[in-house]
Amino acid sequence: MKEKNFEIKVAGVGKFGIRTRTMSDELEIAAGYSEITRGQDKPSLFLVNLATMVATLRVVIQTAPESWDVDTLDPMDEASYAQMRSVYDAIVGAEYSFRKGPGTQGEAQGASTGGRPGAVDQAPVQPGTD
What was the pLDDT predicted at 61? Predict the structure, then answer.
C-alpha cells in the first residue's frame, strides 16, 4: 500500500507533515499506548487520554515545527496539554475529512472502545493528581 501524506496547520503551533494511518500504524499506536500505560487494566482517564494522544502523535507525525516535539513538552505547563490536544484534534479532523463510510469516524475516535486505546475524552486534558 502506498503511504499517503498530508500537511496540516495548527494555529499557534505551526505546520505538521502527517502520514495517513495504516493498520500497521494502528498496531504501533496500540503498542505505544500499552507501553505508556504499562499495561494497566484500568488506567485513569487522564492517562488514557494522554497515552492515546502521545502514542498517536509519535506514529503519524512525519515533520513538525523545529521547536515542537511531543516527548519534550513541559508536563508542568498547561499550555503543553492544550498544544498537544490541538495537534491531535487537527490530525483526527484531517483524517475524517478524507475517510468515507459508516462507522469510520466513531470507531477511529474510540466511540466503541470502552476506554481502550483510541478512546479520547473530549474534556480538556490536564495533569492528573492520581
Answer: 96
